[in-house]
Amino acid sequence: NLAADTNIQKFISQFKKAADADSNVPKPFTVTYEPYIYDAAMVLADSLRKAQVTGETPLDKARAAVMEGFQKLKDYKGIIGTFNMNADGDAISPAVPMMADLARNKWSRAQ
Hints:
The protein is mainly alpha-helical. The protein has helices at 2-21, 34-50, 59-72, and strands spanning 76-77, 82-83, 98-101, 106-109.
């Protein structure tokens, strides 16, 4: 899916630019799992936002809201693809196999 590849490449480009500008990040910097981590954080943020969880929300209610949000997650469009969860909160979306293109210093979907 070329659109997903474009999204991944855009994310990697922006992430590397930010890392290159940060003197605290060791160089050279290679993007590996960051797109996956970003999507996971955004799925969590989406669940919190939809449940209107704030810093004032009691922890037990926030945890329940996250679990419910994960159980209801359907067709969430992330960088690496579309996410869905089953009733147990487990991902049912297929993994995205990636391949390092060392000659061009980028990641792409494995064919």
